[in-house]
Amino acid sequence: MLVGFGTHSGRVLAASRWGGAVHAMSVPAARKVSVERVLHNALGEGRTALFVFDGAEGDWAATLLGHRAIGVVYHPQMDRWRSYVPTVLNRRYDSFLWIDENNGALAPGRTVTARCRAWARDGGLAQRHLADPPRRG
After folding, report:
1. Helix ranges (DSSP H) in 1-137
2. Going by C-beta distance under 8 Å and a sequence separation of 6 or more, which residues neighbour residue 42?
3. What predicted TM-score, i.e. pTM, was given to this entire model?
4. Per-residue pLDDT for the chain (137 aa), expressed as one digit of tens each?
5. Could you state, in order of their start, the residue ranges of all structural domains in the chain?
6. CA-CA distance, 80 to 76, in Å (whole number)?
7. What kind of fold does domain 3-106 have according to CATH?
8. What single DSSP character describes residue 15?
9. To which H or E segment does residue 85 belong?
10. What is the spatial distance between Cα 73 and Cα 61, in angstroms, rounded to a whole number?
11. Helix, coil or strand: residue 29
12. What share of the chain is helix, strand, coil (3-state, %, to 5)?
């Protein structure tokens, strides 16, 4: 299962260059005509939602929109011009986690990391990603 993530605003941990020091960065409000703005406007401020796509979604999930891609390297000052990729959500992902204002990445817990590692080690991932690559839109 390929899960996408989106946020309208908040803070993330990232570096300004590959191999650079990681630090907290502000994420500006999403640009107009983006997945993030559509969900922020439709669901309201501070909301969280998980969408599981089955092909019966409304037009919003089947429409080509910009989708913010924040990775290991991020430049908030260039967000509007460099951080968006054309995306049809229900073709790119099997599900999508929406967090209107993200601040959770600022305190990654060792307990969560340990649980994820144990889950993967005990067969949670089942090496699916090697034998059966996820679909991409």
Report:
1. 35-43, 59-62, 79-82, 89-92, 110-121, 128-131
2. 60
3. 0.71
4. 899 999 999 988 888 889 888 888 899 999 998 999 999 999 999 899 999 988 777 778 889 999 998 888 888 788 778 888 999 999 999 999 999 998 765 555 444 455 455 555 555 444 333 333 344 44
5. 3-106
6. 8
7. EreA/ChaN-like  fold (3.40.1660)
8. B
9. strand 84-87
10. 27
11. coil
12. 30, 30, 40
Strand partners, 4: 96
Length of the chain equals: 137
Residue 137 in contact with residue 92, Cβ under 8 Å?
yes
Single-letter residue type at 62: A
Q: Which amino acid is at 102?
A: N
Residues 109, 13: contact at Cβ < 8 Å? no
